Amino acid sequence: MDRLTEIELFVRTAELGSVTKAAEKMDLSLSSASRYLIDLETRLGARLLDRSTRRIQLTPVGQEHLKRCKHLLIELQEAESLVSASASSPTGVLRITSSASFAMNHIGPLLPEYMRRFPDVRVEVEASNRYASLLDSAIDLAVRTQEFEVDSNITIRRLATTRRVLAAAPSYLSQHGIPRVPDDLQRHQLLLYSYANRPDELHLTRDDVTTVLSVNGAMKCNESQVIRAAALQGLGILVQPKYIIYDDIVSGRLIPVLDAWELPRLTINLAYANRKFVTAKVRTFIDFLVEHFETMGFERKWTQ
């Protein structure tokens, strides 16, 4: 770094004809600038600047060295420009992982527009309800609903919060009735997500009072879309995040029950490896996804 400062200071001094002006331009003290120039001449074993006149002039050796230094600085600027262009123009393969439901509803539909904007990026999506290691599996970005990452080398960025709700098809409710209080769930068929935190317990809160209910599911599955399909066919009452069944609720295909009671909410996070500089492909997709969520107002819809 000192050598680069010496070279840049030497060039600026030669161009401005003044050590003082060059020091001001580079935000250096005059004493520091003088020391840099002395160190440069000492290291080269040659006098580059003639300080005997009122205006600094280059020696013949200094004139020759100035040409090489200018060329060196130009090459450095070009190299930095190329890196900056690469960093701002995403390229390469972007590997994303999320649950199958999130991939189906919120990644797949967005990819055509993202890839139209950034045609040099190829996207690979791994739909999985198990959390893979980002570092071991070469994943660039993961969408997760856990509050924190065990690995300190992983950064998380909050995307949205969603309620978890109980809901069933009208056909099921017309046949089995509508539960009015949590204990009524004991006589209903529940469709449970087996990867949930304690799937056999429901923590229902109302007016700061929490009821913990032990339940036996009529069906358990590790894939939310299977549970959703079963609920739509009238098999039972599902327990799912609202981001998965929001459209079904709006259309009336599923009807929330015990909606005044709150289940623990989920936070949807974006997880990626800690780096001083996040790659352009990761940064642009994160920004693209965050922008889409804000435009659509998903968190507002999912927390009502």
Fold and architecture overview:
The chain is α/β, with parallel strands linked by helices. It contains 11 helices and 14 strands. Helices cover 42% and strands 23% of the residues. A 5-stranded mixed beta sheet has the order 4-3-5-14-6. Strands 11-8-12-7-13 form a 5-stranded mixed beta sheet. The chain is rod-shaped and about 105 Å long. It starts with a helix and ends with a helix. The model has no long low-confidence stretch (mean pLDDT 87).
List keywords for this structure.
304 residues, alpha/beta, Arc Repressor Mutant, subunit A, D-Maltodextrin-Binding Protein, domain 2, five-stranded mixed β-sheet
Strand content: 15-25%
Q: Give the integer mean of the pLDDT values.
A: 87
Describe the sheet with the most strands.
5 strands, mixed
Strand order of the largest sheet: 4-3-5-14-6
- CATH topology heading of the largest domain: D-Maltodextrin-Binding Protein, domain 2
Helix content: 40-55%
Radius of gyration, whole Å: 31 Å
Content-based structural category = alpha/beta
Approximate shape: rod-shaped
Set out the fold topology.
Layout: H1 2-16, H2 19-25, H3 30-44, E1 49-50, E2 57-58, H4 60-88, E3 92-98, H5 100-107, H6 111-117, E4 121-127, E5 141-144, E6 154-162, E7 164-168, H7 170-176, E8 190-193, E9 201-206, E10 209-214, E11 219-221, H8 224-232, E12 237-241, H9 242-251, E13 255-257, E14 266-273, H10 280-296, H11 298-302
Parallel strand pairs: 3-4, 3-5, 8-11, 8-12
Antiparallel strand pairs: 1-2, 5-14, 6-14, 7-12, 7-13, 9-10
Helix pairs in contact: 1-2, 1-3, 1-4, 2-3
